[in-house]
Amino acid sequence: MLISSTRLANIKANIKKNIFFGKKPTPELIAILLVYFVQGILGLARLAVSFFLKDDLGMTPAEVSAMLGIVVLPWVIKPLFGFLSDGLPLFGYRRRPYLILSGFLGAIAWIGMATVVDSPLTATLVITLSSLSVAISDVIVDSLVVERARKESLSDVGSLQSLCWGSSALGGLITAYLSGFLLEIVTVKTVFLITASFPLIVCGVAWLITEEKVGDRSNLDTVKQQISQLRQAVSQKTIWLPMAFLFIWQATPTADSAFFYFTTNELGFQPEFLGRVRLVTSIASLVGVLLFQRFFKTIPFRKIFTWSTILSTVLGMTMLLLVTHANRALGIDDHWFSLGDSLILTVMGQIAYMPVLVLAARLCPPGVEATLFALLMSVYNLAGLLSHESGALLTHLLGVTEHQFENLWILVIITNISTLLPLLFLNWLPNLSAKAEGEDSDSKMPISQRTGHHHVPEFVPEYEGIGIRD
Fold it and tell me: Which among 412, 421, 444, 415 is positioned nearest to 431, based on CA atoms?
């Protein structure tokens, strides 16, 4: 019996160390991770949405890319949700009611996709509602995480970010293959109805959040104080320069929409195979998180951004082999080439993205956690909006349509070369690593002292509002 108890204790210790990165798996932590998990499993509808827009609504690659920019808007105004949560309690609570509301909005949106959407306009409105749902829950869970993360020791810095992102990636992993497989046996609208059940999980786990009642009256003084603190923080060069770098890093044009049309209409990739690709990229995303957690936390941000950008640009150029069918001349099948390319680029992209989360968290002072972090990431998502819209413009100007891909190789070159642009502004980043104590080698002064606040780690997932981004 003693041996059994010892083994049980060892199992629990191993689970805490290896799965929860040293965090105690309390019901509240599980609830927080489930919110991120739901953001991952919403990817079940990602391919369904893409095929629905392409086949059922007949939208062109440029139109889809432009629409993706529009539905990012709720993520651009995330600070507003932070103000609402902090200054306008619902039924006496600042977090739970907003989580429950976000869950219901998400369910309504996906039911709408399955029932009433019949035009690009209604699709844009309903998908934006889904985006709004995830953005609200994102802001709320961010504030919960940063409040808990303030107790994190220096040796654990970045662990909570990795844990939360890993939870989201795990959700994506579970539904990755199913996202394509289901489209072979059921309609896209059936997939939308299945997806509608996932936001309701957020409604359920909201009750596990530990929160003290603050009263039903709005607290305008709190909001005014936050705005003042926010203005003070953003005016600091050590905050707005990294923000500007992240904006440039994310704002370069994308060819994702055009490439989806190429792989389905030109190469004839079926939904089931695209589900396999999503499964591979989901696994690769988890691998990227683990690699960052184990090996890259001590490497300075500048070095990670430099090498990941250069390598991603070089590897991204391999898409030219697929676009020009040169891979066939080399004896490499289109399917295998696409799988390998997606695997490597996703690992590189995830390793590059984790420092974004940690860096943004380091700039976030207590007292305005939800609002300032939402502002930082809304700037990042605004850049994503510009990325989609500039990609849509380039796609249109180059004459790339659902059946015309003659100039797609030019689009690939332009979008890949443009990703090198942020390297010109690399010195805007603090010369720190994710595990550093906050000392900038240029000024020899901790960031927290220069902003007048302590910095704490936090996590904000990348824009996942509609479940299209691969």
Answer: 444
Cα separation of 117 and 129, whole Å? 12
Q: Which of 189, 179, 194, 198 is nearest to 115 (CA)?
A: 189
145-154, 297-306, 400-409 — which is least confidently predicted?
145-154
At residue 48, the pLDDT reads 92
CB 239 within 8 A of CB 373: no
Does the pLDDT of residue 136 top 60, yes or no? yes
Neighbours of 122 (CB within 10 A): 14
Give tens-digit pLDDT for 224-278: 776 777 777 777 777 778 788 888 888 889 888 888 888 888 888 888 888 888 8
- Identify the residue with better confidence: 131 or 242: 131
- What residues does 93 pair with on adjacent strands? 90
Question: HEC states along the chain?
Answer: CHHHHHHHHHHHHHHHHHHCCCCCCCHHHHHHHHHHHHHHHHHHHHHHHHHHHHHHCCCCHHHHHHHHHHHCHHHHCHHHHHHHHHHCCECCECCHHHHHHHHHHHHHHHHHHHHCCCCHHHHHHHHHHHHHHHHHHHHHHHHHHHHHHCCCCHHHCCHHHHHHHHHHHHHHHHHHHHHHHHHHHCCHHHHHHHHCCCHHHHHHHHHHCCCCCCCCCCCHHHHHHHHHHHHHHHCCHHHHHHHHHHHHHHHCCCCHHHHHHHHHHHCCCCHHHHHHHHHHHHHHHHHHHHHHHHHHCCCEHHHHHHHHHHHHHHHHCCHHHHHCCHHHHCCCCHHHHHHHHHHHHHHHHHHHHHHHHHHHHHCCCCCCHHHHHHHHHHHHHHHHHHHHHHHHHHHHHCCCCCCCCCCHHHHHHHHHHHCCHHHHHHHHCCCCECCCCCECCCCCCEHHHHHCCCCCCCCCCCCCCCCCCC
> Please, are residues 427 and 241 in contact by the beta-carbon 8 Å criterion?
no
pLDDT band at 160 (very low <50, low <70, confident <90, very high): low
User: How far, in Å, CA of 194 to CA of 201, rounded?
Assistant: 13
Res 24: pLDDT = 62
CA distances in angstroms from 407 to 70, 254, 256, 343, listed in the order given: 25, 15, 15, 25
What is the C-alpha end-to-end distance of the chain, expressed in Å? Answer: 50
Which amino acid is it at 13?
Answer: A
Using CB atoms within 10 Å of the CB of residue 199, give its burial: 0 to 12 exposed, 13 to 18 middle, 19+ buried.
Answer: buried
pLDDT > 80? residue 298: no
- pLDDT of 81 > 70? The answer is yes
Q: What number of other Cβ atoms are within 10 A of residue 314's Cβ?
A: 10
